[in-house]
Amino acid sequence: MPVSDRYHPDPIHPTLGDVFFDVVSAARFPLHVLRYRNQRWAERVGLDTLTPAEWEAHFARFEPLPGNLPQPLALRYHGHQFRSYNPNLGDGRGFLFAQLRDVEGRLLDLATKGSGQTPWSRGGDGRLTLKGGVREVLATSMLDALGVPTSQSFSLFETGESLQRGDEPSPTRSSVLVRLGHSHVRFGTFQRLFHHGDVAATRRLVEFAVTHYLPEAAGADDLPVAMLRAVTVRSARLAAAWMAAGFVHGVLNTDNMNVTGESFDYGPYRFLPTFDPGFTAAYFDAGGLYAYGRQPATVQWNLERLADALTPLAPQATLATALAPYATTFREAFHAAVLTRLGVASVGPDEDAALVATVLAFLRESQIGVDRFFFDWHGGTASAERAAASPAATHWTGQQFDAFRRRVDAHAPIHPDRLSHPYYQGTAPCSLLIDEIETVWSAIADHDNWGPFEAKLAAIEVLRTA
C-alpha cells in the first residue's frame, strides 16, 4: 500500500483561482540519491509507508500523490527585498506539490526548492545546490528542537548536476528539497494583489486564510482586520522564538513571511556564537538591516506592509489597531521563550522581565557562548553544581552574573527530572554554528562522507527530546 490510512489529501489551493499560480512541470534530473527522509513527519501525514521507490517517484520525479494536485503549481507573489519593492517575484525554483492534513487536522503544504525553472525564474536555473539543501535540513531540525515554529525538511535528493554559483566554489553539486509547511500564503501574496488592484482576489484570499489557517479570526465582523491581528500575534511570537533561540534569519523580506507565523525558506542563516545585537547572517547585508537585534522591528515593518495591502478592504486607521498588539505580544513571548530555554518557571511579569534582563546583560558582558550558557544553567539553581563543573565555570563570576544568580534563584525549575536526560548529562551543548555547518559540508564535498551530517542530526534529535 503506497500510503497509510493517516494520509488525508486536501488539494484546495486551486480553489483560489488561477490568478494565484501557474501550472508547471518538474525538472528531470540525471540522478536521484536520497540523502534525507523525514520519517517522523512522514508518519504524521501518512506517507511513512512509502517504499524507497515510491518515495523517489513522488519526491524526486514528482509523480502526483494519490488524490492530490495533478500538476505542480508555481505560486505568484511580490515582496519588499531589503525594503525595495520587487514586482518580479514568484516561485522561481520551487512549486506547491501537494496539500494534505496531519493527524491534528491541520492543512499542510508539500512544496519544493530546486525543482526546476518556472515562469518566475528570472533567468535562474531553478536548481538548488546540495550545500543549500544540507543547510536547510540542519536549520529546520535545529529550530524545531529549540521550539521555533518552522517548516520541516521532508526529503532531500542529490540530483547529479553541476551548478555554477557565485557564492560558493563551483561547479557544485545539486539537490532537490521538499519541505512540509503550514501554508505558503506569504505577505507578498497579498502585496501582489494590491499592486494589481485586484480587490476581489484580495478579499477571497483573506477568507481563505482565515478559513484554513487562522481559526482565531473566524466569525469576526471585520474579517481583514481580524486576520491582520491574528497574523500580527503569530508573527510576534515567531520573532520572539527566533530571538530566544539566538537565530538570525538573514533575509527577512516580506516574501519570506507567511500568514501562519511559521519560519521557512532558509538561505544565509546563522546562530549566534555569542550575544551580539549587530550580528548579521548574510554577507550581502552590509548595512546590517537584518541583524539579529533588528529582527523584531523588521517583522513589525513587514506587518505594516501587509496592512498596506489590505487597505482596499479596511481603513488604514482600523488596520493600525490590528497591528497594536505586536509590541506587547513580542515582549511577553520573548520573556516566556527565554524562561523556557532556561528551564525555569514564571513568577510574574515583572520578575520574569527582570530575570531576562539579567540574562541578556550577562551574555553581553561575558561573551560566553549562548548555547553553553543555556545548557549549563538549564533548570536554574538546580544546575548550580553541574554548572560549577563546566569547562565554562570561570565565567560564573562578576556583577552581572551575581545579578543573574539572585534573580534565577527565585524561579523554580519547570522539569527538574529533565536534568537526568542524556542531553544534560553530557559535557557540551548541541549547537549549529557556522563553523560546524562548514565542517559537515566539507566532509561531504571533499570525501562524500555523510557521517558528520548524520551525527549532527542525531545530536539535534537528542536535544529535541530533552
State the main characteristics:
466 residues, alpha+beta, 7-stranded antiparallel sheet
Can you describe what's shown?
The chain is an alpha+beta fold and 466 residues long. It contains 16 helices and 13 strands. The chain has helices at 39-44, 52-59, 130-145, 187-195, 199-212, 223-245, 295-309, 316-323, 326-342, 349-366, 370-376, 384-388, 399-408, 422-425, 434-447, 451-465, and strands at 8-9, 21-23, 33-37, 73-75, 79-81, 84-86, 96-101, 107-113, 128-129, 152-163, 172-181, 247-248, 270-271. Strand 5 and strand 6 (84-86) form a beta hairpin. Helix 6 (223-245) packs parallel to helix 8 (316-323).
Strand-residue fraction?
5-15%
In DSSP terms, counting alpha (H) and pi (I) runs of 4 or more, how many helices? 16
What would you call the structural class?
Answer: alpha+beta
The whole-number mean of residue pLDDT values reads 97
| Rg for CA atoms | 22 Å
Low-confidence residue ranges: none
The geometry reads as globular
Largest sheet: 7 strands, antiparallel
Distance between the termini: 35 Å
Note the run of SSEs as H and E: EEEHHEEEEEEHEEHHHEEHHHHHHHHHH
Q: Residue share in helices?
A: 40-55%
| Structure summary, number of beta strands | 13
